[in-house]
Write a structure and sequence with these properties.
This protein is an alpha+beta fold and 386 residues long. Helices cover 16% and strands 33% of the residues.
C-alpha cells in the first residue's frame, strides 16, 4: 500500500510540476525491540498534552536537536481507535452524492466496480469525438481507495518543466511562510486552512467520522498546489506518511506502520481539481483520560538512543499510529483466504512522532515514536537493502 502512496504523491508532483528498510530499535536488544516504557512518567489531561511545547522547541538534548517551531494540535479528547483493513463501510448513496457534488452537471448513472466499488463519470455533451467525451469521474474501489478528477479544472505541466522549481512546505513548521498563489499573497497555513475547509465541507461524514487536514504542500513554478494531508478525529491526525520501516515476517505478511491519507490538487484559481485518498474502516473508539505530555515524550525519545548519534528533528506531532501486520497478495494478485487478515481489528493509539530531518522532501520518513499511552519507544530508521 505504501509504495502506492509514494507513487501517488510523486504523480501529483509530475502533474503539478522506494525503499525497503529494517527497523533499528532503541536499546541494545536488536531490531524491532522497544526501549524503556516510561511508565513512571506522569500523564496529563489530553487537552494539556502540548502544554510545555515551547520548552521543547529549539532545545538540544543529548541525542536530539528539536525544531525551532512546534505547532500544537488543538483537541480536547483523545482515544484508542479501532479499525480494520477492509474498505470503509459507507453508504454508497452518500458516495455517489459526494461525487456528483464535486463533478457538477452531466453525470452518467453510477456504475458498480468490482465487488463493492462505484464510479460516476462526467461527460461533455458537446464533445467532438468519443475520445474527449469523458471530462471527469469519481471512483471508490473495493480496496478502499477513492479519487475525484475533473479535467476542466486540471492544469498540465509544461513538457520542459523543471522539478527544482517546485517549492516544498511542511504546514506545521512553515505555516507562517508568505507565498504568492492565485494572484495574491497568503501564507502556507492560510492556504492549507482554505483547502482543509473545502475538503471537509465536501467530504462530510461520507467515509467516517473524520475531518481532513493538509500537512504538506508542494507549489509548482507554474501555479498549482499538490496538498498532502491526513484524516483527523476530533483534531488529532492519523499518521499520513509512511516511515521507511517495513519487515517481511513471512511469505504472507508484512509488518509496517499504518497510514491513512488524502491529497488534493489546487489550480491557480484556488479550485480543487483532484482529490484522492485511502481511509480506515472505522470500528469505534475508547476515550483516554490521560496522555504522556510532549516534554516527557522528548526525554523518553532522547533516552532511547544508546549510541553517540545526534539527530536533527524536523517536526514533532501527536498522531494516531500503529505498527501492524499486513497480509500480502499472492502471485495472482489475490489475498490467500487462509492468510487474509484484513478483517481483524487493529488499534491506533496517540503517539508522539519525532520526524528526523531528511534531504528528499518526497522520501518516506525516519521516526522516533513515543506511545503517549504506554511510553513505549520505537526508533524506526529505514535502511536500504544491502
Amino acid at each position: 500500500m505504501f509504495r502506492k502512496i509514494l507513487c501517488v504523491i510523486s504523480a501529483i508532483l509530475i502533474l503539478t510540476a522506494c525503499s525497503s528498510g529494517d527497523s533499528t530499535a532503541s536499546g541494545e536488544s536488536g531490531p524491532g525491540d522497544t526501549a524503556d516504557t516510561g511508565l513512571n512518567y506522569g500523564k496529563v489531561m489530553p487537552e494539556d498534552a502540548y502544554q510545555n511545547y515551547e520548552k521543547v522547541a529549539g532545545k538540544s538534548y543529548k541525542h536530539l536537536n528539536m525544531p525551532e517551531v512546534i505547532v500544537p494540535e488543538k483537541f480536547e479528547r483523545a482515544y484508542k481507535v479501532d479499525f480494520n483493513l477492509l474498505p470503509p463501510d459507507c453508504d454508497k448513496d452518500k458516495v455517489v452524492k459526494l461525487f456528483k457534488d464535486f463533478l457538477g452537471d452531466n453525470c452518467l448513472e453510477p456504475e458498480t466496480v468490482g465487488t463493492g466499488g462505484v464510479i460516476v463519470r462526467k461527460i461533455d455533451p458537446k464533445a467532438a469525438d468519443e475520445n474527449s467525451v469523458y471530462v471527469g469521474d469519481g471512483s471508490f474501489s473495493d480496496d478502499g481507495f477513492f479519487s475525484l478528477y475533473l479535467k476542466s479544472r486540471q492544469m498540465q505541466a509544461p513538457e520542459d518543466y523543471d522539478e527544482s522549481q517546485t517549492k516544498h512546505y511542511r504546514v506545521s513548521t512553515d505555516g507562517g511562510t508568505v507565498i504568492e498563489f492565485a494572484g495574491s499573497d497568503t501564507t502556507v497555513a492560510q492556504e492549507a486552512g482554505l483547502i482543509e475547509k473545502q475538503l471537509s465541507d465536501l467530504m462530510g461524514d461520507t467515509f467516517g467520522p473524520y475531518t481532513y487536514g493538509i500537512d504538506e504542500m508542494h507549489i509548482t513554478g507554474f501555479g498549482e498546489i499538490g496538498a498532502n494531508g491526513s484524516v483527523r478525529i476530533e483534531g488529532i491526525p492519523l499518521q499520513y506518511i509512511a516511515s521507511r520501516y517495513e519487515k517481511k515476517l513471512d511469505a504472507y505478511t508484512l509488518e509496517t506502520d499504518y497510514v491513512a491519507f488524502n491529497y488534493a490538487n489546487v489550480n491557480d484559481n484556488n479550485e480543487i481539481s483532484n482529490i484522492a485518498g485511502e481511509l480506515p474502516n472505522f470500528l469505534g473508539k475508547t476515550e483516554l483520560d490521560g496522555l504522556i505530555p510532549i516534554e516527557r515524550a522528548a526525554m523518553l525519545a532522547d533516552n532511547a538512543i544508546k549510541d553517540e548519534t545526534v539527530y536533527e528533528i524536523a517536526d514533532v506531532r501527536l498522531m494516531y499510529c500503529a505498527l501492524i501486520k499486513y497480509p500480502l497478495r499472492n502471485s495472482e494478485g489475490y489475498y490467500s483466504p487462509e492468510h487474509d487478515t484484513r478483517a481483524s481489528i487493529r488499534t491506533l493509539e496517540p503517539t508522539w512522532c519525532f520526524f528526523i530531518k531528511k534531504d528528499d522532501p518526497l522520501a518516506h520518513e525516519d521516526f522516533i515514536k513515543v506511545n503517549a499511552v504506554t511510553g513505549e519507544v520505537r526508533v524506526l530508521l529505514g535502511q536500504d537493502e544491502k
